[in-house]
Backbone:
């Protein structure tokens, strides 16, 4: 009898434990589902202090002076609809009273990545690119939002007569089948109004692979020893050679305009720009080339070939023809023939896609004694904000994005920037020519952040990504190290030394401190 009662009680205990376990599993599943939904779905914007919807989040500034005009992201679709026009009445200004609520919502959004990383268990870089801040939805691109397109048969017929009457320039025809296009052409056809490339485009891997492996057909010279090289299928790339060791710091007694250009700086700048979610630097890859067989023997530039010589220790060297550092005192040498270089994908020819060059309002004086106006006038931005094209649209926050990028990599040589003429002022800025970045890791240059400090403005999505990259689970130096490890030259040696990677974290903290100090300023309002 006792055994029978004991058996019944044991079965009851087992049944109770099973029910309890089932209930706990259901509760855990419900909790995980609610957390993931919170991570991926942004709250609806209200009339006062809520975060905007996901389709507008990436084009909102976080703070700016109340007297300035509104700014939005370079990823905005242009339209004639009045609802989408940008003017001073577009934004609803919010005082400091709502800052706490907004901060809590931002913490929820930024914290979404922690959940993803723990559940999936992938690398920090993969987790970063899966985060909602790097996967914001955007409208479908319209016909005019693409920089280039393959002509239809009707287009060809319309232009045949014009081509017959024109000059004898070579015309290249491609089929409409994208699979038959070389990677560089697919890159050109993928340029849109909002970005230079789509990070998720599989062609990006094919393009960098072709830059690193394709046979070099020819080479011509450039300025400060930049070489334009040619590949099969009419592809081209801009080559910058290694001129100093990767871990060498710029001499502190040199002015910014006297610094060398570094091949690894171009590579690292591309990766950093991608990690910040900008996608405004053409793809750059490192490559180990043979100075003799891949430069001297294939170049069509006789002036360049005349600068080759053999050094006293038997290394093949050349110095090229350019304005700076092109002399026998500043040669580029192989070891004895092997040379590290960076190769940047070329943008479409100017005859197909004209670009406009803009003088930066925060251009330096490029003088040993003089200061630029912005260095002497703390209210300088008030004038800039009233000057086209910075008085409307996204141009000012685009410029501040570029300033943040330059500060992180310590690039003081940003005197001009370019845009594609086709898109007018409704487009992103091209972040070109970054060879003088990453020169000094032991010292930061706060003046690079002058646009951010003086204008009291930053794009909302940029700030959220910066805060995300400051978290231990997405530390900027860690994801940068992992991203650079994908470059072919990383097998030779790290593209950035550890002091440079540590400097990224230090400078990121400085940017966030500047933003926080601006939010405490009574002249700055949190804006949505």
Residues:
């Amino acid at each position: 009898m006792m055994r029978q009662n004991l058996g019944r009680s044991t079965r009851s205990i087992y049944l109770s434990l099973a029910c309890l376990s089932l209930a706990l599993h259901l509760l855990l599943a419900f909790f995980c589902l609610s957390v993931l939904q919170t991570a991926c779905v942004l709250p609806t914007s209200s009339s006062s202090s809520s975060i905007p919807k996901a389709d507008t989040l990436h084009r909102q500034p976080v703070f700016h002076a109340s007297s300035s005009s509104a700014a939005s992201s370079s990823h905005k679709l242009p339209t004639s609809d009045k609802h989408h026009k940008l003017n001073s009445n577009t934004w609803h200004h919010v005082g400091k009273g709502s800052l706490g609520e907004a901060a809590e919502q931002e913490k929820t959004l930024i914290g979404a990545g922690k959940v993803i990383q723990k559940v999936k268990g992938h690398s920090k870089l993969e987790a970063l690119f899966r985060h909602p801040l790097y996967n914001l939805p955007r409208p479908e691109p319209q016909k005019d939002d693409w920089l280039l397109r393959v002509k239809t048969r009707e287009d060809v017929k319309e232009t045949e007569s014009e081509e017959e009457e024109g000059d004898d320039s070579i015309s290249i025809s491609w089929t409409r089948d994208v699979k038959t296009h070389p990677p560089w052409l697919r890159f050109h056809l993928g340029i849109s109004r909002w970005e230079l490339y789509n990070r998720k485009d599989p062609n990006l891997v094919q393009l960098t692979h072709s830059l690193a492996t394709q046979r070099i057909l020819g080479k011509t010279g450039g300025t400060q020893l930049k070489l334009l090289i040619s590949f099969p299928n009419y592809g081209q790339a801009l080559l910058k050679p290694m001129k100093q060791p990767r871990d060498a710091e710029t001499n502190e007694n040199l002015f910014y305009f006297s610094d060398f250009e570094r091949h690894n700086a171009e590579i690292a700048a591309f990766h950093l720009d991608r990690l910040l979610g900008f996608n405004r630097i053409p793809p750059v890859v490192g490559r180990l080339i043979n100075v003799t067989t891949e430069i001297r023997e294939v170049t069509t530039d006789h002036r360049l070939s005349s600068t080759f010589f053999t050094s006293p220790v038997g290394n093949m060297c050349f110095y090229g023809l350019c304005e700076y550092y092109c002399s026998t005192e500043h040669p580029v040498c192989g070891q004895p023939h092997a040379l590290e270089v960076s190769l940047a994908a070329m943008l479409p020819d100017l005859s197909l896609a004209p670009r406009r060059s803009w003088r930066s309002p925060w251009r330096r004086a490029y003088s040993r004694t003089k200061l630029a106006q912005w260095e002497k006038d703390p209210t300088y931005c008030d004038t800039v904000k009233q000057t086209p094209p910075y008085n409307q649209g996204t141009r000012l926050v685009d410029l501040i994005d570029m300033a943040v990028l330059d500060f992180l990599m310590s690039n003081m040589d940003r005197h001009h920037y370019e845009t594609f003429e086709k898109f007018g002022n409704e487009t992103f800025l091209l972040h070109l020519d970054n060879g003088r970045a990453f020169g000094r890791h032991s010292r930061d240059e706060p003046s690079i952040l002058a646009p951010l400090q003086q204008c009291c403005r930053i794009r909302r999505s940029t700030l959220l990504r910066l805060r995300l990259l400051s978290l231990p689970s997405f530390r900027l130096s860690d994801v940068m190290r992992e991203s650079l490890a994908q470059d072919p030259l990383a097998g030779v040696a790290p593209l950035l030394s550890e002091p440079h990677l540590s400097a990224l974290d230090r400078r990121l903290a400085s940017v966030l401190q500047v933003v926080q100090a601006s939010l405490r300023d009574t002249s700055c309002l949190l804006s949505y």
